Amino acid sequence: MDAAFFAASAIALAATVMAITRTDAVHALLYFIVSLLGVAVVFYTLGASFAAVLEVIIYAGAIVVLFVFVVMMLNLGREAAARERGWLRPAMWAGPSLLALLLFVEIVALLAAAAPSHAGIHAVEARQVGAALFGPYLLAVELASMLLLAGLVGAYHLGRDDRNDRDGRNSGRAGGHAPGRLP
C-alpha cells in the first residue's frame, strides 16, 4: 500500500509540474486532469474512498469542464481552429496518456489486492456530506463558488476581443458605440 501511495504521489506531482509549465492551455488541462486523478488515488490509498470519488466527480469532472468551457470561449477564430487540429495528433496525448495508464494500473492493482475486511470503516452518506457542506462549512463553500465565478468573469474580460470597439465599428451594441463612451 505504501508503494502505491508513493507512486500515485509521484504521478500527481509530475503531472502538476507539467500542468504548470505548459504554455498551451489544453495541454495544461490534460496534465491537470491526470494530477487530480493522482490525488484521488492518493486519497484511496489513505482509506478515504469517498474523498477519492468526490475528487474525481467534482474536480476532475465539473471543474475541469468549466476550465475547458473557458478555454473554448476564449479561443475563437481561425488561428484557434488550426491549433485545435494540431492537438489531435497522437504525440500530444502521449504524456497524459502514459501517466493516466500508470494510475489505472495502480488502481486496478489496489482494488485486486484490497481485503474485503471493513474493520473500523464506516460509510459516509450523502446526507452527512450535505449537512456538513451547508452547515459549518457554508461560508467556505460560498467563498469557493464566488472565487470560481470571479475567475470566470476575469478570464472572459481578459480574453475578450475589443478590436471592434477600437476600430469604431458597432460590434453588435445598440447605438453604434460601446457603453460608457461618447459617440
Map the helices and strands:
Blueprint: H1 2-21, H2 25-45, H3 49-74, H4 78-87, H5 90-113, H6 126-133, H7 138-159, H8 163-167
Helix pairs in contact: 1-2, 1-5, 2-3, 2-5
Would you give an account of this structure?
The chain is an all-alpha fold. The chain has helices at residues 2-21, 25-45, 49-74, 78-87, 90-113, 126-133, 138-159, 163-167. The chain starts with a helix and ends in a 16-residue tail after the last helix. Mean pLDDT is 76; it is low at 170-178.
Shape: flat
Structural class: mainly alpha
Measured as a percent range, the helix fraction is over 70%
Number of helices: 8
Provide key terms for this protein:
flat
Q: Care to give the gist of this entry?
A:
This protein is mostly helical. It has helices spanning 2-21, 25-45, 49-74, 78-87, 90-113, 126-133, 138-159, 163-167. Helix content is 74%, strand content 0%.
